[in-house]
What we know:
This protein is mainly β. The chain has no helices and eleven strands. It has strands at about 5, 10, 20-25, 35-40, 45-50, 60, 70-75, 80-85, 90-100, 100, 105-110. The strands form two sheets. Strands 2, 4, 5, 6, 9, 10 and 11 form a seven-stranded mixed β-sheet that branches. A four-stranded antiparallel β-sheet has the order 1-3-8-7, with no helix packed on it.
Amino acid sequence: QVRLVESGGGYVRPGGSLRLSCAASGFTFSAYAMRWYRQAPGAEVELVANINEVGVDTIYPYSVKGRFTISRDNAKNIVYLQMNNLKFEDTAVYYCNRGVDWGQGTQVTVSA
């Protein structure tokens, strides 16, 4: 079955960096675009990054563009989210996604 397992979340000060990882299994990873979403307390789920099957094309919303970078390693079946210059408003649970399949999420907290 499809499994998406996120890791790398934690506490960080404003301006700091974190790298999230999502290990995928149960499907042909290189055949699918992958996404990272996030959900802050009391807010709706927000798409923060999309990467195509071969890792060439990426999409970001304005809120994270220039600070977040999505990448993938199709040999290891892992998708990454490098987050730089983190802000208080980046605090959320971050989820890895493939279509209808979701990971369990990893908490990112930006706090002074």
